[in-house]
Amino acid sequence: MAARKTSRKAAAAPESRVVRAAMSLAAVQGWRDTSMADIADAAELDLAEMRGLFPSKTAILGGLIRQTDGIVLAGSDGDISSEPLRDRLFDVIMRRLDALAPYREGLAAVARELPRDPAALACLAAGPGRRSLQWMLEAARIQPWGLAAPLQLKGLGLVYLSVFRVWLNDDGEDLAKTMAALDKALGRVENLMGALRRGPKGFRRRNDQEVEEAAVGEA
User: Fold this and answer.
1) Rounded to the nearest 5 degrees, what angle is found at the Cα of 161, between the Cα atoms of 149 and 197?
2) In angstroms, how far is CA 217 from the centroid of its own chain?
3) DSSP 3-state assignment of 83?
4) How far apart are the first and last CA of the chain?
5) Neighbours of 139 (CB within 10 A)
6) Pick from 102, 89, 62, 85: which is nearest to 160 by CA?
7) For residue 49, how many other CB atoms are within 10 A of its CB?
8) Cα–Cα distance between 128 and 192 in angstroms, integer?
9) pLDDT at position 37
10) N or C terminus of the chain: which is more exposed, having fewer CB within 10 Å?
11) Cβ 81 vs Cβ 166: under 8 Å
12) Separation CA 204–CA 144 (nearest Å)
């Protein structure tokens, strides 16, 4: 038994095994039909170990978000600050999607089914999702706006979600459709990009509908 546990740890960190198992099962049997026990079995953990790592499936999704944040941030350096802001955001978002690539089929199942669980969706959006957007801005070397940061995060979130939907169905090896959608989305929010450069004092007040239309447009 001790040898088995040692070999498990050597193979991969338990948190990573859980994330991988959850996404693999979701891809095959759907997210709603995947239980915590299913995930624990696939990750070769007992339920007590599983409970200590992640108390719920929503927590596992939060773990995936944090894992992806780590990969994106590890690939960032200060030199990016010399690049145009639009290029910085393009780079950060594409690196995030590259990090999520091994889990795309599972994420597609989550994207289809999670809206049926509004409590879990709200929890992710208000917690790990929000913090992830903040770290994406940090990775792109974009200064937060302080009290106006929620508006700044919403603009980035709208861009990311619109491109994420395209990416889920982009089967091309070069991700041409995804990159085109991202370039188009960033182009549609050029005014917002200018506001990001100037900070909150230079931001023109726009209502929520205008911001969403600028970010998503006809996508």
Assistant:
1) 40
2) 21
3) coil
4) 53
5) 23
6) 89
7) 15
8) 24
9) 98
10) N
11) no
12) 17
In the chain, the amino acid numbered 131 is R
Q: Which amino acid is at 218?
A: E
- Dist CA 43 CA 61 (whole Å): 15
Structure-block tokens of residue 162: 């619109």
Q: What is the DSSP string of 168-214?
A: HT---TT-HHHHHHHHHHHHHTHHHHHHHHH-GGGPPP--HHHHHHH
Amino acid at 187: G
Sign of CA dihedral 98, 76, 122, 151: negative
Q: Which two tokens stand for residue 53?
A: 């790592």
